[in-house]
Each structure stands twice: as structure tokens, then as C-alpha cells.
Amino acid sequence: MGFGVSFTRIRRAISGTRQPDSNYDAEAGQSLVRVVLTLVAALYALAGSLSGLIEDWADRAFQIYSPIYMLITCLLFAAVRLWPGVNHPRRIFALLLDFSSLTLLMALGGAFMAPVASLLLWITVGFGMRYGVRYLAGATVAALVSLAVLGIVSPFWAGQPYVLATMVLTSLIVPFYASLLLADTHEAYCAADTANLAKSRFLAQASHDLRQPIHAIGLLTNCLRDAGLHPTEREMVDNIEHSLHTVRRMFRSLLDSATLDSGKVVPRPQAVALGPLICDVVTQNKEPARRAGIQLRFVETGLIVRADPGLLAVMLQNLVSNAVKYAPKAKVLVGCRRRGKTISIVVIDNGIGIAAEHQPHLFDEFYRVQHLGRNVEGMGLGLAIVHRMARLIGIGVELRSSLGRGTCVTLTGVPVTDLPAPPTTISTASQSLLHGMQVLLIEDDPAVLLSTKMLIERWGCEVLAYAEMPSPVPQCDMVIADFDLDGPMNGGGAIAAVRLALGAAVSAIIITAHDESRVREKLDDAQLPILPKPMRPAELRALMLSQKMQSCPKGRAGPRMPQQQPALVRQGGAK
């Protein structure tokens, strides 16, 4: 290995702390088996040497070759650890090394080494099962060549023609049968993968179509709250908002699950102030906790961690939401504990707890625990999503529960960083920035268009609402566009066209009911903020304030942009 390999990388390679990867696991497993078998073969040869069952000249050859082979196997194992991934030259070298060494061992050892011949099948099938049919065929050819060499150079094997013929037939029949099993397994895997992708697409599309009206109802309800209602009417609005909160949480769980199934979730770690993140999650769950008679508290912290803020917030939100649902009239505490260079985020309650027979299944999708006949809202996706996201970003999840005493769920191994975290709050004084701001709103759903317009106008903005790309483009300070628009361009294309027409880098926000990563792939501007539906009004307001504060203070136009035709970003793929 070169001097450029850092100490950290070597330490992780030795300890095995690496993200799950099928190719890495297969080759690492094969390398580890090689090291173990080398030790076993060396001990077996030593026993033959001490008992006098191996001739002196053969024993000397073993003493010379064994350390060399052991060194090579250890180097291969280290190479796989340090540089994982598909490396065909390395695999072919390992295949040739295994069969040539086994042939040499059997040729020198004679009758005493005859039991080692069983490793021929082990190695042949092992290469096929780990690397596929092509390697199975290559290993089969190598095994036949080894047997042919033994029949030519070894007096013992030359004198055992029937045994040798049996081994040749076995080396052909077993790999052939293994290839049939591999083909069936591959076909079944492809069918399952296709079904899984179809399920994910269905969930994503169903979630998108249903989230649109939920999004509109949520915004209209928020506007209705401040319309001078009587106490009875306000209570009805509260009940509507509670129901919407439940439905919104279900849709987000479905979308999170479908997004993880797609394999397109890429963690983007950055410095995250843990205190504001925990505070925001607790604030979002205050009203559900109040309804359930729960005392929801959190311990303030000034720690800064390195993590993907979006994924970490989703995991913590699911844990707190679960505690609120399953610990009625109890106490729920959210806090963190520092352990060296990492911290553990803890959500603990003194609720009714979970029976031991349920605990092994809690991280399975759609698994729900029914307590005392209570009809708990949800679909059983929360902990499954937490577990999958934790594996994705390389942290752990631990759950301890005792029936009648409560439950403690911990996110472990979150790395602490000394880097400064970006600001997460906006001062109250800055909120006046929205007053008088002209907002161009483009949304093709009439209900969503109306509700969003009413909401933004309540914040003192002048809203120019359109169901499609306006022509001519009016002057504006900010563009808020839905990603899906009827016509030749989506929201990203509409924003680009507005900026071109005004000759200014106008602040903009994309709103979508699709998965953010899929939408991001379709946008030319990687810096465009994306807000998922259904959203809370506070989220939209905070993002508008953030965009306004980041914009150029000198006039509405901002920096001039080059006069060029923007590429039309057509709807498709992520629509």
C-alpha cells in the first residue's frame, strides 16, 4: 500500500467500519476465507511433517512456499479492505493463486494431501456464488486444469485414474448445477426488484396525487384560523388541523419509504447545530403531545454534529412522533449524550412500553404493535425508515423497552464536529422584510394556487398568481413555482425564463409533491431551494425570509444575467 493512505482509512479498514456494499462484502468474504483456509492447510501440512507422512524434500518446499503464500493472501485481504469495489484483475489473480497453490500442495503432499482435494469444489463454487456465472465458468476451467496437471506431474494421482476421473466429473457436474441455481436466483431477484420498483413508483405517484388537495386544505385551514372564528368554530378548525397533521405524516412516511427504495438518496453531511434541530422537532410535536396529555420536553445543547440535516431531522421526527403516539399521558424527553468524538441522541418515555416478543420486529416495514386495543394512527413505517436512514448515513439505532416502564430509542455514533453550523433561525425583526414584496406565484392546481395566494398575502406580500407561465413576465421580487406545470416547461424552466425576461437573478422557490432528489435531477440550477408538499406555512415563510435576506439589497433587479436562451426543462421523469 502507498504512503498516501491515511491513518484513518487504515484504521477503518482494520476495524471494518464501512458502509454496506455487496461487492465489497463478497470480495472481503472470499479474502477472509482464503486466509483461514491457508492457516488450516499450513497446520495440516505441519502435522504431516511432524508425523513423517510427508517426504523431506516436499516438507522443505512447503516451508519455503507457505510463508510466501500467507503473505500474499494477507496483502490481498488488506487490499480489499482498503480499496473495495469490483476489481477484475485482482479477482483473476486471486483465482489463479488459489488453484495454482492448491495444485502444488496436492502434488507435493501425495496421499497425505488427498483430503485437500475437497477444496477444489469449495473454491470453484465459492467464486461462482460470490462473483457470478462467468467466474464460476473460469473457476471450473481452472479446476480441470489443476486436475490435469496433477495427473501428469504427481505419481500418486497418476496412479489413481478412477479417483481422478471422479473428481473431473464432480468438478463439471457441481458447477453446472450451481450455474442453474444462480440463473434461477438471478431471475427471482430481477422479478422481485421489478415488483419493488413498481411498488415504489405507485407509492410515489399516489402520494403526489393525494398530497395536492391535502396541501391546499392545510393552507386554507391556516388562513381560516385568523378569520375571527367563534370558540366552537375554532375547535372545529383545530380538529381539521389534527386530522391533516396525521394524514400529512402518513404521506411523508410513504414518500420516505419510496425514496429509500429507489436507491437515489445520497447523504449530504454538513455541520448541523443540534439544539435548534431538536427544538424544531419538539415544536412540531407540541400540539399532538398536548392532545395526548404528554409532557414533551427536550434538553438544550450547544453541540454541533456532522450529518445530513434533512435525514437526521426525519429520523428524530419519527422517533418523537412514535413516542407521542405510543406513550399517552406520559412524559417524553429528548436529549443527547456525548461519548468521545460522537454523541447519542436519545428519545425516552415512561409510557406503557413494548413487550419483548414484539421488539425483534419493530424495525420491519408495516409492523405495528397494538396496545390494549388502542387504535394508534400510522402505518408502521416510522422505525423502519429510521433504521434504513441510519444505515445510510453510518450511525446506529438502539431500542430498549420494558413493558409497563417505558421505551428508550437512541441514535448512536453521530460524529461531533468543530466546524460552525449555518444559521437556522431568523430574527423577528427580519420578518418585516416580507411586507410589500412582490411574489410571482405559478401553480396549475386551482385550489393550491388560491390557498397559497391567500396565505402569502396575509404576510403583507403582493401576490401575482398565474396557473401557467405569464406573458409578458411581470416585475417581481421572488418566484414561487410548482415543479409540475401544464405546458412545455416545468417550474425550473419557468424560473429560468422569468430571470431571463427580467435580466435579474430573482430569488425563487420550487414547491413539489415529488421526491426532492428526483426533482433536483431535473433542475439546471442546483441552488434552487425545494419545499415538499404538504408543507407547513411556517416552513414556507421561513424559506421566503431566508431567500429575501440572501438576495441583493440594492434594488429589485439584483445582478444582471447574461442574455441567453434558457433550455426548456420539459416535464418528464420526475413529473
TrEMBL record:
| SUPFAM superfamilies xref list | ATPase domain of HSP90 chaperone/DNA topoisomerase II/histidine kinase, CheY-like, Homodimeric domain of signal transducing histidine kinase
According to UniProt, the name of this protein is histidine kinase
List each copy of the Response regulatory domain by range.
438-548
GO MF terms held by the record: ATP binding; phosphorelay response regulator activity; phosphorelay sensor kinase activity; protein kinase activator activity
Instruction: Indicate yes or no for the key word Flavoprotein.
Output: no
Organism annotation: Paracoccus laeviglucosivorans
- Residues bearing 4-aspartylphosphate are D482
Residue ranges occupied by any Histidine kinase domain in the UniProt entry: 205-412
Specify the taxonomic lineage.
Answer: Bacteria, Pseudomonadati, Pseudomonadota, Alphaproteobacteria, Rhodobacterales
Catalytic activity annotation:
ATP + protein L-histidine = ADP + protein N-phospho-L-histidine
Q: Which InterPro entries match?
A: BphY/WalK/GraS-like, CheY-like_superfamily, HATPase_C_sf, HATPase_dom, His_kinase_dom, HisK_dim/P_dom, HisK_dim/P_sf, Sig_transdc_His_kin-like_C
* Membrane-spanning parts: 32-54, 66-84, 104-123, 135-157, 163-183
